[in-house]
Amino acid sequence: MKTEKLLLLIGLLSHFLLKPLPAVAQPQHVTLEDVVQMAKAQSIAAKQAATQKQTNYWQYRTFLAGFRPQLSLDGYLPSFERSFTEVTQPDGTISFQPISNNNSVLNLALSQNIALTGGSVFVQKQLQRFDDFQRNNRLYNGIPFAVGVRQPLFQFNAMKWDRKIEPLKFDESNQQFIEAMEQVTVDATGLYFELLVAQVNLQIAEKNLNNTDTLYKIARHKLELGKISQNDLLQLQLSVLTAQKDYASARQNAEIASLRLRSYMGYRNEQTLELAVPTQIVELTIDVKKALQEAFSNRSDAIAFRRKILEAQRDVDKARKDNGLNATLNASFGLSNRGAHLGDVYIRPQDREYFEIQFVLPIMTWGRAQARTETAKANQQLATQSVEQDKLTFEQAIYTQVTLLQMLQQQVKLTAEADRIGQERYQIAQNRFILSDLSVTDLGIAMQEKDRARRDAILALRDYWTAFYTIRLLTLYDFERNEKIK
Hints:
The protein is an alpha+beta fold. It is built from 9 helices and 11 strands. The strands form 3 sheets. Strands 2, 3, 4, 5, 6, 8 and 9 form a 7-stranded antiparallel β-sheet that branches. The protein has a two-stranded parallel ribbon with strand order 1-7. The N terminus is likely disordered.
């Protein structure tokens, strides 16, 4: 009789556990690598990083163009005026005389900046035409050829500092693009595991609901056979209600997480995403010194450290020179002529010389000059101290991340083994409950431990892969392939 009852219970269990599920649309199976590649290719964050890189490139091209010869044509053509103008007479009185004229000027110049001195040289050609319509008169004035120089004296040389700082800014922007793409990887990984955890929780909730419902139905038969108490049956019934609530909550969380991931990586397909569990981890042994060396060689932060120091030195230099003698030398030499006809300008032109020194010398500033200089020096010290602190923080972050990655590799193995044991233990507990050899309370404990072990295994994988991609972000180095990330 006992054998027949046991076969009946096993048959009921098989019927409920093996009952086919309704057909649903086929989901798209994706891996972590698939999601990372899609995010890099089509996410808004990746596109913004590419656009910013292009903007920085053209800004640097603009800087470089400033040190190449510049050819320009300027002037005003025409410049017509009809009016009355004030004319002082020989006796001191004023007479307003009518004027009607056109005074047009064209100037063609080729200039070149000199970064070493902060000045510029130019070659010039100019033509001026004056038409007096009141007297029916026309005159030409021109400079067939002139060469000149404009040279600041004792002044701050912005071009010299730009030649040092702007290339660093460009290199920094290039590394920032690589970092931005690696940040996309880290963010996509976080969203991937957010959805994966939600899907695993949904699978757990669905399986627990099915199992609890099945066990409840079996328990009803066991109650009829006197193998279980009414209290245990009510406890199982309450577990069914709790499982239904957990399933509804897990389903909602999975839909929200799916929407966040799809939105971030620009996924337009209507298919449901089904994520694979990335259990194959990369066994890495990372030397901290190697990681620090690569970080200070590749990261934009390392370039920014040098740039900030140079900018502080530049500001001190500017404060000192702006507070002293400021002079500018303007000189040119060439040929010029005038005449009633255009050709007269080029017939036997005369020498044309121009020489001028402009200067400003502060005499009494009531300490303003010293205050500006001391402020710049204090800012330089602050920049140096900030850079040193940033370096220490940067080194600590790398050291922590390397240590964390090594620990998480072992953690993944331990949680995977705990997950396997938890699944096996629950299966044994379930079988013992069917055979009336285990209480409902012990069965619930086994279920909770099984679920916790499964979640811990997924969370350990999440922490590992996040740390794996974070160390790539911090160093811009691929320790798996032993090469720089480009």
